[in-house]
Amino acid sequence: MFKLTKKNEADINLKVWHSKREVGKLEIDPIHIIIKNPKDPIRVKQYPIPLEGRKGLKQVIDDLLKGRTIEPCMSPHNTPILAVKKADGSYQLVQDLRAVNARTRIRFPVVANPYTLLNQLTPKDVWYSVIDQKNAFWTCPLDEKSRDYFAFQWEDPDTNKKQQLRWTVLPQGFVESPNLFGQALEHLLTQFTPKEETKLLQYVDDLLIARSSKKSVRECTVELLNFIRAKSLKVSKSKLQFTL
């Protein structure tokens, strides 16, 4: 594995890199979710969350509210959240959307087969880079009518105040998120043309650039990162890979 050179980094718009309080945004029409029997509320009671877990989620919730990724609401729907402790001791917000997924009228998934994608590579394509888009699904806005389906209850650990919040974007764990984001990104990438014989492959939110030339892969990666920034998306710098 090799990393970006200082020159590479100097050529990249620094705003492409993900930070905790910034979420990218695709300039697309807000997405409408179709639910079976929409007049029948989707209601699953909130699971008990220990105080430690709620304290761990406090900053996560506050950041999402500040970024308008979630917002207060009074929804007839509700599904539970969990506080999942990560290896580094921090907490991840996870919503159990199984009840919503079961009631969703799913559009036909147009997601590439990874084996078919990789068959496009040749033995000469020994240099490649992998770009991981951070919180990719959150770049897709939800329309007003669809947001209530993704409501959840939050109890503040400091005030013990309970309120409902809802996602304003495609949430993680929703059955249609990979397909809807993948199609939006695929359409966006039609505006980007790799130079010469450099290959650009997309699988949902992961992008792979490959060619026989190390220099070409580096140059194309820098160009793609700047294109991604111009389209208001974010990339995880720590997960960016250049590999032989």
From TrEMBL:
Enzyme class, UniProt record, top EC level: hydrolase
Top-level taxonomic group: Eukaryota
GO molecular function, one term: RNA-DNA hybrid ribonuclease activity
EC numbers, comma separated: 3.1.26.4
SUPFAM superfamilies: DNA/RNA polymerases (SSF56672)
Family matches, as Pfam families: RVT_1 (PF00078)
InterPro entries associated with the record: DNA/RNA_pol_sf (IPR043502), Rev_trsase/Diguanyl_cyclase (IPR043128), RT_dom (IPR000477), Viral_Replic_Matur_Polypro (IPR051320)
Domain Reverse transcriptase: 65-244
Gene3D superfamilies, A to Z: 3.30.70.270, HIV Type 1 Reverse Transcriptase, subunit A, domain 1
PANTHER family, per the entry: CCHC-TYPE DOMAIN-CONTAINING PROTEIN, POL PROTEIN
Family per similarity comment: Belongs to the beta type-B retroviral polymerase family. HERV class-II K(HML-2) pol subfamily.
Identification of the protein by name: ribonuclease H
Provenance organism: Zosterops borbonicus
Taxonomic lineage of the native organism: Eukaryota, Metazoa, Chordata, Craniata, Vertebrata
